[in-house]
Specification:
Family: Belongs to the bZIP family.
Protein name: Basic leucine zipper ATF-like transcription factor 3
Order of helices and strands: HHH
Strand content: under 5%
GO cellular component, one term: nucleoplasm
Organism: Propithecus coquereli (Coquerel's sifaka)
Shape: rod-shaped
Oligomer: single chain
Largest sheet: none
Distance between the termini: 69 Å
GO biological process, one term: myeloid dendritic cell differentiation
C-alpha cells in the first residue's frame, strides 16, 4: 500500500515523506537553507575525495620507492653472495698450499668448516 508522490517533491522530501501525510509547503528560507546545506555537503564531499586521492597517490609513491629499494637490496645480496663464494673458494685454495698449515711443527688439527653460505642467506 504505497502512495504515489507528486513529481514536484524533492529528493529530501521523498526520503522523509510518510504515507498518508501530505508534505507541508516549503518557505523560501527553507529552500535557501536546503540549497546552502547541499552546496556545503557537495564541497565537503569534494574535499574528502581529493584528500583520499592524495593519500592514495602518496601511498603509491611510497610503494614505488620501496620497490626500487627492494630491487637494489636484492642486487646487493646477489653481489655479496657471489663475493662470498669467490672468497670461500680462494680460502680453500690457499689452505691447500699454505706453508703454515702444511708445516708438521705447526700442525694442529683444523676441524672442517661448515659451509658459510648455509646459515646466512634466505631460502
Amino acid at each position: 500500500m504505497s502512495q504515489v508522490l507528486p513529481v514536484a517533491c524533492s529528493v529530501l522530501q521523498r526520503s522523509v515523506a510518510t504515507p498518508g501525510i501530505q508534505p507541508q509547503p516549503q518557505s523560501p528560507e527553507d529552500d535557501d537553507r536546503k540549497v546552502r546545506r547541499r552546496e556545503k555537503n557537495r564541497v565537503a564531499a569534494q574535499r574528502s575525495r581529493k584528500k583520499q586521492t592524495q593519500k592514495a597517490d602518496k601511498l603509491h609513491e611510497e610503494y614505488e620507492c620501496l620497490e626500487q629499494e627492494n630491487a637494489g637490496l636484492r642486487r646487493e645480496i646477489g653481489k655479496l653472495t657471489e663475493e662470498l663464494k669467490h672468497l670461500t673458494e680462494a680460502l680453500r685454495e690457499h689452505e691447500k698450499m699454505c706453508p703454515l698449515l702444511l708445516c708438521p711443527v705447526n700442525f694442529v688439527p683444523v676441524p672442517p668448516r661448515p659451509d658459510p653460505m648455509a646459515g646466512c642467506l634466505p631460502r
